[in-house]
Structure prediction request, 107 residues.
Amino acid sequence: MPESPRWLLSKSREQSARAVLELVHGAAAAERELLNIRASLGKQARRFALRELLTGRMRKVMIFGFGIAFFQQATGINAVFYYLPTIFSQSGGELSSAFASRCSLAW
Prediction:
């Protein structure tokens, strides 16, 4: 099993990444995919300090998240987890982070 092209590019191994992509997609599509991966690697997520979780807008999100988890455990109603991605996405979060929060709360 070859390494992931994304991982290879993050380790500055462009030729290996290109070879893997050509093996999977062909030469023409491999170049387009390399450009897409490079663009996504250029966008680094901002890291939050633990202190930022308890201030400003994040304080409300943390209270909301802990409240949902607490009441779900206290009542035993798992229906909350079904609607959780919708709730998070409508409260201003991205859909991908909404699904991630659903997974992290379920564990």
Notes: Residues 56-75 form the longest helix (20 residues).
